């Protein structure tokens, strides 16, 4: 009777493998490639493992698969126009899947990821830039809303003052009504007294 197949899977094995390869690189053990980086007169050399670089970078994969012969115990690769700090961060990322950089270096890390054809680093930089942009837009939106609320609160007292002034003016007009200009009181008399209309009406009665 055949038994059912079961899956043996380790969640920690990929992380342990990366950590062990990282330690081997830092100690210089089993390294079979030297990468020389130069930028504006600043030059540095980094030792690494071909298998790790080829697995994480299509650029290095093409270089290693197309090389015809070994230059001794290690292969030498020269990179121009790549800053030393950026390549050091690139190596740390491909060996540990994480690296800490300043915000203004994210764009440069994206550029080196595209230059070396490292898809994982490129996607990571792109996602981080997207988050940074969203946070900046959110801050601008909050700032704009706070400015609008301050402007509204500043205009409300002036509106209240204007409405109060209008109410006072209306009250004054109600207390002291102006006589129309054609009223008989204001008309100049032509020898007759103001009481004349009243006496005429009495006589008619």
Automatic annotation (TrEMBL):
Protein name per UniProt: GZF1 protein
UniProt cross-references to SUPFAM superfamilies, sorted A to Z: POZ domain
PROSITE patterns for this protein: BTB
GO MF term (any one): RNA polymerase II cis-regulatory region sequence-specific DNA binding
SMART domains: BTB
Chain segments carrying region Disordered: 146-205
Pfam families named in the record: BTB
Domain BTB intervals: 31-103
InterPro entries associated with the record: BTB/POZ_dom, SKP1/BTB/POZ_sf, ZnFinger_BTB_dom_contain
